[in-house]
Design a protein that fits this description.
Blueprint: E1 4-7, E2 10-12, E3 18-24, E4 33-39, E5 46-52, E6 57-59, E7 67-72, E8 77-82, E9 91-98, E10 107-109, E11 113-117
Parallel strand pairs: 2-11
Antiparallel strand pairs: 1-3, 3-8, 4-5, 4-9, 5-6, 7-8, 9-10, 9-11
Length: 119
Amino acid sequence: QVQLVESGGGLVQPGGSLTLSCVPTETMLEVKLMGWYRQAPGKQRELVATITARGTATYADSVQGRFAISKDNMRNAVNLQMSNLEPEDTAVYYCNYKQPSYYSPNDYWGQGTQVTVSS
């Protein structure tokens, strides 16, 4: 079964930047939506950003203007550029790929990568 492999997490100071990447272990067809979610300790998983197959991006209000989601069609990858990071951005970040409902399974998650923003 296809797996999503994330990379790029780590420790960064407030105001710093990180770029996360997510690549599937096999080519995935008809991915209609790619996204990044995050889960902080003691909190529910929340949406950070999504990008459609056509390239339309949406963002959570808390990251608007600081984060940028993009996709690399050649690598079937999705990236999240994070700048001006704040301690409140500390969380485990997960990528997500969704395919049409006639695929089974059609909803894939990465294993998560830790982002810690601290001085």
